[in-house]
Amino acid sequence: MRSNTAERWIQDRVDRYGPVSKLSLLGTPTVLVTGPAANKFVFFSSALAMRQPLSVRRILGERNLLELGGADHKRIRGALAEFLKPDMLRLYVGKIDGEVRRHIDERWEGRSTVTVMPLMKRLTFDIITSLLFGLERGPVRDALAGDFERVIEGVWSVPVDLPFTAFRRSLRASAKARRLLVEITRETKAKLERGEATRSSNLIACLLSLADDRGVPLLSEEEIVDSSIVALIGGHDTSSILMAFMIRHLASDAQTLAGMVQGKYQTHQIKKHHYFKQKLFSALSMLISLRGAEHDEVAKGKGDGEALLTWEDLGKMKFTWRVAQETLRVVPPVFDNFRTAIQDVEFGGYTIPKGWQVFWTAGVTHMDAAIFPEPHKFDPSRFENNQSSSAPPCSFVAFGGGPRICVGMEFARIETLVTMHHLLRRFRWRLCCKEDTFARDPMPTPLHGLPIEIEHRTYY
For 33, phi and psi rounded to 5 degrees? Predict the structure, then answer.
């Protein structure tokens, strides 16, 4: 993972043993399954249960969505889906837009270089804490951001609770964050009772408002806190990685860039890169005519540019979302996952014994030339009909699939489109590092956090 050769290791194993093979991982007998049929088996089989490492259970809570199954999983997932459904999310587009504008004004504007990865992580954190918890900008949100960083550091660590270990730091930070979320939950409950908040105010208000036919709350306080932490982690890492790798790719893909925005550039910054700019301008000039620049078209409809983006505006950014999907295909944020066989189960002509791990990975289907021709070529047109028409089901699995498909998929789409709209309309950038590499630990991270040189964009 850290040397970024995991895909090659998996593919070599598939070439040698086929799409089903056994091995030992972390001291546990394991079956590696690959291909669309294997993905479908993992996502839909009732004989397989989620299996999270002990560190995840200790830090995120025993009632977290990743750990639960059966009726409890369905109940809590349904509660989260109630807040994250499109009808609810369309109410928050303007609020997300405001967070993105403030972030860019404070952390991008007036600078000649920025480091993208930590900026995207802070942006997604601010968006999520605002919408999910109702936390406004200030010292409380800043303190939670520090705690959250320490939580993330230990989620996938060796669960040894000793001083000075990442696991101990993460446990302490998790306990502190949970105390804050309990306080927020109780304050929100009081506001709902006084009529000072509504079901649509934020995620916690929505979860507190859900009840059965007898008026009994669907979720306990512990389940609300655990669900909030999982939502924070799930929405923070994956979206920030997606946007960082989109920025990374667009730095060197003029053709894709031209489908998003047109424009001239200011010359008071990065003058030493005159040759680079000449080449880029030339490529853009030739390619702009190939497809309309959708973000410029959206901006034209906003008048003076001060009006916030709307749900309808996002519906016009179809090409940008195809670019995002292709980015996820090439660099899926989640490389693999595990299930546990809760009974003997058949797959591919083999019996997987009860208690064995089932190891699943996205890269095998994403980079299969029989499914996605020329898989190493970046081609957003693969997703012109939401997914390549020639690809079998369960081939593109960046968001998982089945009953556990990412519940925040639509939320990720909104914050990605809003963020890319403002970055593309205001800046152009160039990679600082000649070596354009990344490693996984366990999520993909660009070299040095992806430092870039930026210049402000002017318009025709």
Answer: -125, 140
Assess contact for 294 and 319: CB atoms under 8 A: yes
Domain residue spans in the chain?
6-458
Q: What is the pLDDT of residues 352-404, one digit of tens each?
A: 999 999 999 988 899 999 999 999 999 999 998 755 456 788 999 999 888 88
CB 383 within 8 A of CB 326: yes
Distance of CA 213 to the CA centre of its chain: 35
- Determine contact, residues 309/94, Cβ cutoff 8 Å: yes
User: Contact at 8 Å (CB) between 196 and 244?
Assistant: no
CA–CA separation, 337 vs 362, rounded Å? 9
pLDDT of residue 390: 62
Query: Which pLDDT score, from 0 to 100, does residue 268 have?
Result: 39
Vertex 162: Cα angle to 150 and 152 (nearest 5): 20
Q: What angle do CA 142, 308, 132 make, to 5 degrees?
A: 40
What mean pLDDT, rounded, does the chain reach?
85
Give the Cα separation of 427 and 455 in Å (integer). 6
Helix (H, G, I), strand (E, B), or coil: what is residue 366? helix
What is the pLDDT at residue 138? 87
Phi, psi dihedrals of residue 441, rounded to the nearest 5° = -155, 60
Q: How far apart are CA 174 and CA 60, in angstroms?
A: 7
SS3 category, 59: helix
DSSP H helices in 114-253: 116-133, 139-155, 166-194, 203-209, 221-250
414-433 burial, b at 16+ Cβ within 10 Å, e below that, comes to bbbbbbbbbbbbbbbbbbee
Phi, psi of 347 (to 5 degrees): -155, 135
Residue with tokens 């009974």: 343
- Asked if 79 and 205 touch (Cβ cutoff 8 Å), the reply is no
**Strand-strand pairing, 48-50 and 20-25:** unpaired
DSSP calls for 224-267: HHHHHHHHHHHHHHHHHHHHHHHHHHHTT-HHHHHTT---EE-S
Residue 309 has what DSSP assignment?
P
Positions of the chain with pLDDT lower than 50, given as ranges: 264-275, 278, 280-291, 388, 460
61 in Cβ contact with 225 (< 8 Å):
yes
Do residues 331 and 350 make contact, with C-beta atoms less than 8 angstroms apart? no
6-458: in CATH 1.10.10.60: no
Q: Retrieve residue 298's tokens.
A: 């959206």
If one counts every other C-beta atom within 10 angstroms of the C-beta of residue 316, the result is: 14
CA distance 273 to 281: 12
Phi, psi (degrees; rounded to nearest 5) at 358: -115, 120
